[in-house]
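Form 7-S
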Amino acid sequence: MDARKTPPDVSVIVPARNEENNIADCLSSLLQQGEGIEIIVADDDSQDHTADIVCRLAAQAPQLTLVEVPPLPESWIGKNHALDAGARQARGEWLLFTDADTRHIPGKLHQVVGRARREKLDLISFSPRQEAHAWWEKAVIPQVYRALAKLYPYQRVNDPSDLLAASNGQYILVRREVYFALGGHRAIRDAVLEDVELARRAKQAGYRLWFGSGEGVVSTRMYSRFQQMWEGWAKNLFLLYRRDHGAMGRARRTLLLRYLMPLLTGSLLFVPGAEMVFLPALASLFYLGWEHLVYWRELPRGQKSAALLLLPGATLFLLLLWDSERRYRRQKGIEWKGRHYRVVS
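Output:
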């Protein structure tokens, strides 16, 4: 029987806009997930060699298909439009939405599907292991995810009686029938945080969610350039804090009082003639040492060196929080992947 006429267990949808540096490695990892999987790359008007790379791989892998995304309609976010286009071509019982910057451990997808079936889950999402290479990645990324872990604790998200919902758009596995019952990405076409919104709607509708660490399943390096990282988090942070100006203000004050003020006080120890503040300055330095130790213990294995960048990371994170809120307050919109979107604070 023709494999193309047999519906796959899973349809993987990868939105791609100018992803020539990522797409080959992402697809290579997906092609190692075993039988019964189709992979759909939704090419969103890429101006680089993304489509050429996909076509070259597809010539050797019949389970891989390139879909050209139609022109972006007004009121749509580009990623949501691409995911919608890919999902409408999908034939699988399960849909996996994943990003081009992800790398998937061979053979894990069928294990995740098996778990979803055994536990009668409707949506599983993983927060991928974050690969950080440059100093600014090591400084900022752990700080952001440390904050997100407090905003969206896995235990609360996975509790059906708790209204809090979240998922990570880098890896969302959802039952096909559930996805279309919710209206898919068409129903959340203008959502910048489409992953959180999809999870929220699924939980409100009574479907079972599970959200957790993707260690051993999937990894990602989200940003390879500082400006790209800044734009990405400035776009998302205000929304991740649920548009709560008070919560963002408290987060900034916490960073200031917990790290930067002790640093300023501790630096007085090295100022000539500041003997009157010797004890407070010394105590501040000891306190900062203790904070570094706490941070080091919280960091995942393999990322412990980021503890040395606690203070630069806290400073950059504070500035990111301020910039993200400022952009939404001014309602001048956001830029992402070469497109401009209007936003409302």
